Amino acid sequence: MTTTIRPDSLAPGDVAEITRNDASLRRFLHGLPGVDQVGAEARAAGLGTRSIKTTAKAYALDLAIRMVDLTTLEGQDTPGKVRALASKAMRPDPADPTVPQVAAVCVYPDMVGIAKETLGDSGVNVAAVATAFPSGRAAMDIKLADTRDAVEAGADEIDMVIDRGAFLSGRYLQVFEEIAQVREACARPDGQSAHLKVIFETGELQTYDNVRRVSWLAMMAGAHFIKTSTGKVQPAATLPVTLVMLEAVRDWREATGQMVGVKPAGGIKTAKDAIKYLVMVNEVVGEDWLDPDWFRFGASSLLNELLMQRTKMTTGRYSGPDYFTLD
């Protein structure tokens, strides 16, 4: 029997029906409306030119700070560096206690315990990359062990990467099942679950149509967040790609009643860039997503720029870039 379910008529039981086999999943994903490349890029560019008032800018800067996932994902990471990053997450500007803390600290799984210990009950989450980050190329048992180790160490969030080779080869069911299994591995003994962010590496997906398809695929498999990039591949996050992903979570909510978060990561370096993304969120999906629970920035270098702009608005003068700690 052929599956003919459309996104605008998706019911709770339909996901299981669609994902019973690769053929039905393929029909669904390739039945999604195509993305008008010129239109998407033009709309993203137009939203990026919006101006906001000074009071709104002050609010936007603080909101952007609260949305940052402060990240260190280098081979040279040390316990001391992770502790310093966690301290900065809690008090981004030690000289100004009114600066809000960031959303999360993102580290490799072996550093989760150190970050968790340093952050304590501050409310800043610990996120861990997993599933053979950044390539996503490993046996499934290794990916699941990677995830479980991070969760057992105390990770509140897991940032997994999909196997782009499998997706680009059309092996959609394989990608779906991997996401679903990692989601299960996020379960904790207390019955709660670490939130799962699914990284697409959009710079390798070639088309906006693929970005739309993988967004729906990840949401159907149980993603709590969909994320553009690892930050290791260029291009990383862009406004048009994020627009397509925001449209996907908007349509998913209309179809299922469920909200899914969005995280652009990589290449977002200035406060002006961050505000462009916030304007887009407000215009495309609405105020419900203007919250760290539903929108994040994966851009550690962005934090100091936000702090510099915030200081300028408060004092009327810029602080030098060396006024804040380097990440």
TrEMBL record:
InterPro entries: Aldolase_TIM (IPR013785), DeoC (IPR011343), DeoC/FbaB/LacD_aldolase (IPR002915). CDD domains: DeoC. Pfam families: DeoC (PF01791). It comes from the Bacteria. SMART domains: DeoC (SM01133). Pathway: Carbohydrate degradation; 2-deoxy-D-ribose 1-phosphate degradation; D-glyceraldehyde 3-phosphate and acetaldehyde from 2-deoxy-alpha-D-ribose 1-phosphate: step 2/2. Keywords: Lyase, Schiff base. Its EC number is 4.1.2.4. The keyword Lyase applies. GO terms for molecular function: deoxyribose-phosphate aldolase activity. Belongs to the DeoC/FbaB aldolase family. DeoC type 2 subfamily. This is Deoxyribose-phosphate aldolase.
